[in-house]
Amino acid sequence: MLENTNPIVLLLIIVTVLVSIKGFSDYSFFEKFKFQVTRILNGERVRMVSSGFLHADWIHLGFNMYALYLFGDIVAKQLGNLPFLLIYFGSLLAGSLYSLYYHKKEPYYSAIGASGAVSGIVYSCIMLYPEMELKLIFIPIIPIPGYIFGVAYLLYTMYGMKKQLGNIGHSAHLGGAIGGFILTLLIFPQIFLINQTMVIILSIPILLLLFLGKKLNI
Fold first, then answer.
1. Strand pairing of 133-136 and 110-111?
2. CATH of the domain at 29
3. What's the rounded Cα separation, in Å, for the pair 164 and 35?
């Protein structure tokens, strides 16, 4: 199964797993490279990228790497290795930037995980193949069209931010998905002509955030 995986995607998964394992057992390493608002504002900007290679535990790591394996391979094979890397790291940075903006008044806020980057890749994949059907773990019998999943995912993320649901970096997910959406359009603008209606539908949550975010306290 892995032998058919794009080598760049596979390499990224391996590096992330190795760095995460290092972080599991090395507290000082973990603390040095995690996302932390005060540290970043004081100039340690490397944390905005390095935090994407750290994870809380094996379950957190496993979910993110499995999603990267599934969706990253599709994006890399469709757009090429360099565009894939631009979307991945661009989404990671977008997620960190949005988290920094959203939590700027919380000096001790910290976060880890590749979720922002992976969210960007998932959104990119849905834009490329909006007709793809996804089966969720808790309702595996009913396939959900990709574009519906994409809209629902962002709306849930915004709701999670507003209600502060769980110990989840919803802001990084949202920023990463927005990054993936914008970068995919910039790299592959033809997609707007190919799937114009779907692109417009997928942009709705982003437009809601931009124009109604303050009113909704998001």
1. unpaired
2. 1.20.1540.10
3. 18
pLDDT in tens, 16-41: 999 999 999 999 999 999 999 999 99
**Residue pair 51/31 in contact by the 8 Å Cβ criterion:** no
Q: Structure pTM? A: 0.86
Percentage of the residues of the chain whose pLDDT score is greater than 70: 77
Helices 115-128 and 196-212 sit at what angle, rounded to 10 degrees?
140
Q: Which residue type does 180 have?
A: G
Residue 218 covered by a domain: no
| Residues 6 or more apart whose Cβ sits within 8 Å of residue 17 | 61, 65
* Number of domains, the chain: 1
- Enclosing domain of residue 19: 2-212
Q: Given the structure tokens 């995986």, which residue do they identify?
A: 5
3-state SS assignment for residue 136 = strand
